[in-house]
Each structure stands twice: as structure tokens, then as C-alpha cells.
């Protein structure tokens, strides 16, 4: 069985395989300021009340603080929802991107996580089944605590080799190139191999985050010591709870699993990767786009706004200056990341280099809030999507790269992986 088949079999209590339609009890559900209003509307039409006010997480992240009357009105409506149903886990803004909040507080291995956001696939990094649903489906989930899904097929991706220059973002961009924008439609992307085994949770979250960019239902990685250590050290889970989780640990036997496709990527001689406009699968080695002039750099998002990302970016900005023609925006993915980055002096490094620091949230990622691009402007971003017009003007251009390439390019004024 694939990892996803194992997880879902355990959830429903009998053996399932790809293609089966199953009903599942949801362990954790989430919507944000962008998707709760529609979910609430649909919920009202279905009846009244939620199945469990302790299993629902609502986070304001897409437009925080509200920048338009419309955004403010939407948040007002969500507040009504939160009060009416006494939602216990409400994050009112500034606390982080919904996915980072989920990772830092709620997701556990083997869970079924349903989110009203396409990047809910991020949480497969915990060895959970996590996927995005539309607003009406989310309303049904909020009302009943149940979801209906077809068990996805799986593409297995093994990452091997050794290369200090290569980050999780380079790897996932390379995978996007390999699989393509539709190559994993309704499938799970199961990551493994020696590189993933060594990778920290920040990197694993980056890998799983972009499954949707290949049409994937979710990304997934087996829970292991790195997962349990994160849950103990970062999340403060007790030894008893960790022992309990370990007892329920699900592992995959690669040789016995039935995969739709298997891919191995050796990073040993790989260059840093860049996705060029207008799709995340238009990926090239950095040398092929080196010299492309940029107007803005954004370091942040649910893909690359975590502590490891900020540490990496700060390495190249320390003591340096952002190029005079470039605006650099840095947004920590959560309040927790922000505070730790402050303690470590990373924020000071960014500010001294000339960056703008904004409130934890989605920021410029989807062009609805800060850092909107003008006609013809070029942004190098650590986010996951570079669709035409996503960050502003329809004729603006987004390149996607790692925090390292973003930071170096911010200093140089053009896309590059070389500081000197
Ligand atoms: C606004 C929201 C529905 C959307 C998503 O689902 O992904 C957003 O987060 C995005 O990244 O485009
Ligand atoms: S950071 Fe970007 S990709 Fe992630 S949830 Fe927010 S808008 Fe979507």
C-alpha cells in the first residue's frame, strides 16, 4: 500500500486502495478570512450549527490588517460566525498564515485535515492526509464532521544525493518541472529518499506545499524521528503523547506499494532552480535566467516564510544592502517565526539591509494586499504561484525561487545565485 492508502485505511478501519470512494471523519478543519464567508453562507443554507467547535480553526491571514472595506466586511461576518458557534481556535490576524498556524499548533500524524484553501496539502509533511476543499464542501464538513473523497493514486518521488546549495524549494521546483502542472491531477505525491529523510520539518512543509501546483490532491511524507522531535521540541507535546503517536506510526514499504509513477531526482549536480512566468512548472536552472532585472523581491508565504527560510535569507543580507532599484519585502509566516527571528537578529539584518517587514500573513503572495506590482514590474518571490497577474498588474512578471536566490538577487538587482 502507498502511504496515503495506509493512512486512509487506518482512518476508516478497513483496507482501501486508490480509486475507492470513502467517507471519512475529519480530525481538523480550517477556513480563513477569504473562504469562511462563503462557507458560512453555505452552512446557513444547510442548517445551523457546527459539528465540533474545538476541531475548527479560523485564521485571518489573506488580508491582514484589512486593507479595503470589502475585506473588513468579510472579517466582520467571520467574527459573527466565530461568536455564534463559539469557535475555540480563532486567530484574529497577525498570528500567521493559516497553514503555518496549523503546523505550529494543530496537525498531527495520521490526521485527516480539511482546509478551505488549496495549500492545505502542506500538512502531509506530518504524515497526515491533508487537502483543500471548496467552500460548500467546507460547509458540509463544518456541519457534519465528515468528508467524502476518492482515494488518490500516488506518485512516489525519491530525492537522493548531496548538495549544500540546494534547498527544499529548489527540489520542489525541479519536481514541478518533472511532473508538470497537470501531471499529478487528483494524486498524492509521496516524498522519500535520503535527502527527505535528513530534511527538517520546514523543508518538508515546503515540499508538500506545492503538490497542488502539479494538480496534486496532497503531498505526503512518512512521520519519523524528525517529525516526533518537532512535535516534542517545537510544539511541546509530552513524552506520553509522543509515545502514543509512535505506537500508531504508519510506515510505507516502497517495494510493496502500487505507485502510478516513480521518480528519482539526484541533487548532486543540480543548480538552484527558478520558475519563470507564468507557471510554477516553467522551471529553469538559475544560470539560464541569470541577469534578469528585478523590481521587487518577496521573502515569505506558506511556502518559504519559516524560520529556516529567514535564516537562510539573512545569511546573504547580513552587512549588505538591497540594490537601490529593488524593493524587498520580508514577511515571517507566523508570529512565532517573527519573534524568533527578532531574537536571532534576523529582522534587524533585514531592516538594516533596507527591507520592509510586514505583519505575518499572506502579504503580496496573491496580489490582494501588500506589495502589488505595477505594469511591467518583475518580482522574484519565494511563493508557490507565478500565474499571470497574480501579484498585481496583468502585465507584471513573477519568478519563483528559494530564499537564498531571492536574498542574493535582492542585493544584486537581478536574478542570480552569486553574491560576488
Ligand atoms: C484565497 C484562497 C482560496 C487561495 C487558495 O485556495 O489557494 C489562496 O490562498 C491562494 O494561494 O491562491
Ligand atoms: S501565503 Fe499565498 S499560497 Fe499560502 S495561503 Fe496565503 S495566499 Fe495562499
TrEMBL record:
Domain Aconitase/3-isopropylmalate dehydratase large subunit alpha/beta/alpha: 7-288
Binding, [4Fe-4S] cluster: 302, 362, 365
Signal sequence coordinates: none
Gene Ontology terms describing biological process: L-leucine biosynthetic process
Biochemical pathway: Amino-acid biosynthesis; L-leucine biosynthesis; L-leucine from 3-methyl-2-oxobutanoate: step 2/4
Originating gene: leuC
EC numbers: 4.2.1.33
Subunit: Heterodimer of LeuC and LeuD.
Record-given protein name: 3-isopropylmalate dehydratase large subunit
Co-factor binding comment: Binds 1 [4Fe-4S] cluster per subunit.
Family matches, as InterPro entries: Acnase/IPM_dHydase_lsu_aba_1/3, Acoase/IPM_deHydtase_lsu_aba, Aconitase_4Fe-4S_BS, Aconitase_4Fe-4S_dom, HAcnase/IPMdehydase_lsu_prok, Homoacnase/IPMdehydase_lsu, IPM_dehydratase_rel_enz, IPMI_cat
Amino acid at each position: 500500500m502507498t502511504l496515503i492508502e495506509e493512512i486512509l485505511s487506518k482512518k476508516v478501519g478497513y483496507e482501501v486502495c486508490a480509486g475507492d470512494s470513502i467517507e471519512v471523519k475529519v480530525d481538523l478543519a480550517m477556513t480563513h478570512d477569504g473562504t469562511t464567508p462563503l462557507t458560512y453562507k453555505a452552512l446557513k443554507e444547510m442548517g445551523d450549527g457546527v459539528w465540533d467547535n474545538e476541531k475548527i480553526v479560523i485564521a485571518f491571514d489573506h488580508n491582514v490588517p484589512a486593507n479595503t472595506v470589502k475585506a473588513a466586511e468579510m472579517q466582520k461576518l467571520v467574527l459573527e460566525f466565530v461568536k455564534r458557534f463559539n469557535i475555540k481556535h480563532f486567530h484574529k490576524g497577525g498570528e500567521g498564515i493559516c497553514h503555518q498556524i496549523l503546523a505550529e499548533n494543530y496537525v498531527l500524524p495520521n490526521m485527516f485535515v480539511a482546509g478551505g484553501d488549496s495549500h492545505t496539502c502542506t500538512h502531509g509533511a506530518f504524515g497526515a492526509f491533508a487537502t483543500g476543499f471548496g467552500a460548500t464542501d467546507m460547509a458540509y464538513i463544518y456541519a457534519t464532521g465528515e468528508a467524502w473523497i476518492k482515494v488518490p493514486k500516488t506518485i512516489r518521488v525519491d530525492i537522493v544525493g548531496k548538495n549544500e546549495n540546494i534547498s527544499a524549494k529548489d527540489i520542489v521546483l525541479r519536481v514541478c518541472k518533472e511532473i508538470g502542472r497537470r501531471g499529478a491531477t487528483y494524486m498524492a505525491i509521496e516524498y522519500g529518499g535520503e535527502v527527505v529523510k535528513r530534511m527538517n520539518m520546514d523543508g518538508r512543509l515546503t515540499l508538500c506545499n506545492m503538490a497542488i501546483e502539479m494538480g496534486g490532491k496532497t503531498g505526503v511524507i512518512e512521520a519519523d524521528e524528525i517529525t516526533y522531535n518537532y512535535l516534542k521540541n517545537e510544539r511541546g507535546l509530552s513524552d506520553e503523547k509522543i509515545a502514543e503517536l509512535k505506537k500508531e506510526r504508519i510506515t510505507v514499504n516502497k517495494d510493496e506499494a502500487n505507485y502510478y509513477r516513480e521518480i528519482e531526482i539526484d541533487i548532486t549536480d543540480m543548480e538552484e532552480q527558478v520558475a519563470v512566468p507564468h507557471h510554477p512548472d516553467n522551471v529553469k536552472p538559475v544560470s539560464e535566467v541569470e541577469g534578469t532585472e528585478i523590481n521587487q523581491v518577496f521573502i515569505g508565504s506558506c511556502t518559504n516564510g519559516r524560520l529556516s527560510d529567514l535564516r537562510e535569507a539573512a545569511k546573504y543580507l547580513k552587512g549588505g544592502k538591497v540594490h537601490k532599484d529593488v524593493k524587498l519585502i520580508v514577511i515571517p509566516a507566523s508570529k512565532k517565526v517573527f519573534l524568533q527571528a527578532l531574537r536571532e537578529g534576523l529582522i534587524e539584518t533585514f531592516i538594516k539591509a533596507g527591507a520592509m517587514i510586514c505583519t505575518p500573513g499572506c502579504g503580496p503572495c496573491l496580489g490582494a494586499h501588500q506589495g502589488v506590482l505595477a505594469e511591467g514590474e518583475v518580482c522574484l518571490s519565494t511563493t508557490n504561484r507565478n500565474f499571470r497577474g497574480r501579484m498585481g498588474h496583468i502585465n507584471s512578471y513573477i519568478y519563483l525561487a528559494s530564499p537564498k536566490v531571492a536574498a542574493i538577487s535582492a542585493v544584486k538587482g537581478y536574478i542570480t545565485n552569486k553574491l560576488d
